[in-house]
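Field log, afternoon session.

UNIT: design team B
ACTIVITY: writing a sequence onto a fixed backbone
BACKBONE:
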């Protein structure tokens, strides 16, 4: 670009009426929030007669995408015109090689609209611009005057999609890519193979399409539900190489690189159904109909490497990006332990044990990918046993994988399940719909800081960015997919783009509510869990307990009732802790002004002799599941899906041993113990529960015991009924089913 024009544009941008002020930019709902934005006063209007003026043919695709969006959603598109000089009253889009590729400057003033940007920045400027257009079907659209200078914090900004557990057609994948583009993500991690299916055509191995792409049925309900049920519908699909190329082009036009994931050595059941010869036992196998981790994995024989390398050759050929993801997560070593070939390999290569096989596997594949000029990416398990390549680590089991990777000079992408798993529940109110488990509300995503705090500035350079993961065990269609990612995808985009010191949840929440309007306009499904009311319960001396209500939406006001009626504006306005001294239900509604945002809060309190009383724990619960302390056992609240650690006490390696001081001697005849069973989380029912009582706090007498048969019969709420006795102290011991798994207890009641 001609230097004098750049000078002109810079002049236009930075010699503006003093009316531009670094002011409340939350009024302008741009997400992710720009690095720098000054607001002007007034608007510049565009209509179907406005012209897109550009200086360089390289921006034409960007303009076409922009116009397509306008056409689809507003029913008009703009004429384009190439010109070496910007024109007033028009939208000027000027590519500049003086700016970093992802940087853009955007000015809207009374004279027109001026964009100057690096190659990719042009696209981001246009995305920002689209967010400035009001989501209305008007023929003249008013764009607020402002000045933005923007570029991202992290260079890797990713979203992942699992198309195996549930398959998404090409068009759905393209729409998914649109959402990424809208929020300035630059990487799409496409999870293409797993136990339940193989979704990419590989010319050399046609059985991957005819056999591995299909499973004979799918689990109904949630993993762990008993009895296990399956539908008998053949399910599957795959993308042809032609379709893959089409998607790659579509993404690349939106400046998004695709990282394909071909899982190994685990999560391989589907491939092994068609090619059992690459397992240790020879099979037969079938594509999994249920979720989880499966023991039949690739056997590290020469033939297997040939197979995988042939597959990867086709994959490398198709995908132009430098990264290839090879999975590496959750690989059970059971088969390798019993396989003569594997044992022989351990000896020959000095691998010490089966863990060494995983290292050997990864290193061989990484070395192969290197010959194709590709960099290996793997889940954090691949780092565990040492890694001699330059592989990039995707840290999913927490922060440690990413931190360890950086310390060993590997680049890392942060994707800890605690902040980045969009397959978890985002609301306390599930509407009866399933998610994988866990609870990841919007504010937790927003507060995510990708750089592990153990790293110094230099080490932190290896944290190239972060990624949201969307596993689709419980996401069967596009509506559900949208609802699971919106608005969390917006929150994560700000984590990735906006400088950490500019992040502010309150401002973000106002802007995201404006995006709700945009999503409605675009016909997208989204979650409004931001308007959920949450609660915290406290002991309240002799009076029982008290409850605090709060909302993470700063503009919301809470109205509540305690008489079972639905709250409205005439109900009590919440202003501080509510005391609860008898069984009751508290219902809450959230309002902004007179507008009702949500009215789904309802908390039942079951008061009994133990509620709010002092609890002594003989064994400490696990640090991660002990937030509520002993009080959480007598807070009157029964835990509900999604299971939230703060509501439960979790014991691993120890038993529950809780003594409740009723305060005075009482006549009692029943104790109940509320426990959780969740096989996915390795949380099991106790194998025995006993209740003993005391009147002096020293001598205890056992009054009832439940054995495992009666516990299994009762399942969650375990009841122990006994002859009426006098007691002041009640001791409950619940024995962990085994010492490696979990026992979760959330409430003990005494009547
Ligand atoms: C773990 S995250 C997996 C996936 C599951 C996911 C469910 C990772 C590397 N592996 O296979 O779908 O949990 O949240």
């Amino acid at each position: 670009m001609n230097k004098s024009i750049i000078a002109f544009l810079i002049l236009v941008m930075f010699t503006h009426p003093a009316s531009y002020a670094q002011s409340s930019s939350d009024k302008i709902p741009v997400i992710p929030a720009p690095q720098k934005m000054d607001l002007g006063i007034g608007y510049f209007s565009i209509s179907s007669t406005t012209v897109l003026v550009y200086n360089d043919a390289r921006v034409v695709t960007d303009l076409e995408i922009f116009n397509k969006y306008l056409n689809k959603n507003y029913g008009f598109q703009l004429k384009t015109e190439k010109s070496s000089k910007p024109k007033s009253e028009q939208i000027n889009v000027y590519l500049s090689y003086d700016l970093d590729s992802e940087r853009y400057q955007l000015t809207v003033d009374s004279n027109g609209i001026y964009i100057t940007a690096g190659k990719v920045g042009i696209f981001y400027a246009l995305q920002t611009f689209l967010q400035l257009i009001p989501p209305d079907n008007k023929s003249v659209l008013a764009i607020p005057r402002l000045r933005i200078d923007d570029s991202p914090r992290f260079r890797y900004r990713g979203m992942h999609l699992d198309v195996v557990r549930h398959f998404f057609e090409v068009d759905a994948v393209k729409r998914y890519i649109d959402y990424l583009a809208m929020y300035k993500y630059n990487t799409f991690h496409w999870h293409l193979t797993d136990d339940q299916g193989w979704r990419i055509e590989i010319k050399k191995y046609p059985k991957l399409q005819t056999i591995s792409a299909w499973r004979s049925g799918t689990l109904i309900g949630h993993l762990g539900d008993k009895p296990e049920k399956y539908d008998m519908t053949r399910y599957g699909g795959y993308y042809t190489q032609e379709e893959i190329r089409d998607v790659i082009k579509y993404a690349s036009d939106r400046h998004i690189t695709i990282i394909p994931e071909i899982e190994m050595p685990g999560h391989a059941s589907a491939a092994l159904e068609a090619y059992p010869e690459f397992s240790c036992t020879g099979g037969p196998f079938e594509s999994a109909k249920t979720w989880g981790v499966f023991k039949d994995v690739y056997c590290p024989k020469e033939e297997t490497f040939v197979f995988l390398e042939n597959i990867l050759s086709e994959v490398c050929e198709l995908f132009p990006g430098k990264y290839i993801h090879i999975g590496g997560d959750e690989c059970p070593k059971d088969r390798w332990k019993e396989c003569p070939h594997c044992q022989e390999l351990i000896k020959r290569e000095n691998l010490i044990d089966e863990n060494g096989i995983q290292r050997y596997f990864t290193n061989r594949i990484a070395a192969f990918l290197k010959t194709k000029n590709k960099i290996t990416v793997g889940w954090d398990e691949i780092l565990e046993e040492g890694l001699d390549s330059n592989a990039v680590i995707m840290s999913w089991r927490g922060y440690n994988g990413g931190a360890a990777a950086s310390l060993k000079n590997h680049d890392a992408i942060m994707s800890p399940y605690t902040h980045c798993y969009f397959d978890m529940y985002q609301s306390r109110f599930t509407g009866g719909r399933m998610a994988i488990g866990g609870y990841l509300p919007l504010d937790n995503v927003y507060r995510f800081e990708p750089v592990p705090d153990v790293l110094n500035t230099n080490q932190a350079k290896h944290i190239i960015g972060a990624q949201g993961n969307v596993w689709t065990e419980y996401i069967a269609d596009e509506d559900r997919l949208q609802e699971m990612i919106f608005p969390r995808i917006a929150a994560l985009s700000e984590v990735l783009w906006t400088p950490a010191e500019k992040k502010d949840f309150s401002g973000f929440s106002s802007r995201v509510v404006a995006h709700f309007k945009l999503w409605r306009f675009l016909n997208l499904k989204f979650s409004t869990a931001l308007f959920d009311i949450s609660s915290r319960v406290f002991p309240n001396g002799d009076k029982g307990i008290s409850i605090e209500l709060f909302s993470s939406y700063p503009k919301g006001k809470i109205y509540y009732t305690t008489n079972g009626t639905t709250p409205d504006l005439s109900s009590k306005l919440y202003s501080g802790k509510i005391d609860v001294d008898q069984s009751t239900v508290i219902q809450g509604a959230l309002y902004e002004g007179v507008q009702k945002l949500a009215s789904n809060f309802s908390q039942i309190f079951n008061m009994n002799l133990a509620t709010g009383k002092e609890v002594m724990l003989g064994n400490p619960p696990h640090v991660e599941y002990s937030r509520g302390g002993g009080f959480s056992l007598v807070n009157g609240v029964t835990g509900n899906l999604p299971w939230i650690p703060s509501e439960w006490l979790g014991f691993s390696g120890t038993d529950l041993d809780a003594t409740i001081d009723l305060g005075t001697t009482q006549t009692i005849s029943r104790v109940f113990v509320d426990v959780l069973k969740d096989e996915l989380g390795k949380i099991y029912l106790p194998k025995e529960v006993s209740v003993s009582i005391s009147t002096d706090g020293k001598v205890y007498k056992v009054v009832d015991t439940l054995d495992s048969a009666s516990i299994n019969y009762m399942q969650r709420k375990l009841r122990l009924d006994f002859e009426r006795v006098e007691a002041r102290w009640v001791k409950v011991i619940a024995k962990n089913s085994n010492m490696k798994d979990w026992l979760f207890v959330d409430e003990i009641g005494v009547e």
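LOG NOTE: Residues 329-330, 379, 396, 421, 423, 436, 471, 473 surround TNX (CB under 6 Å).
NEXT ACTIVITY: expression trials, pending approval
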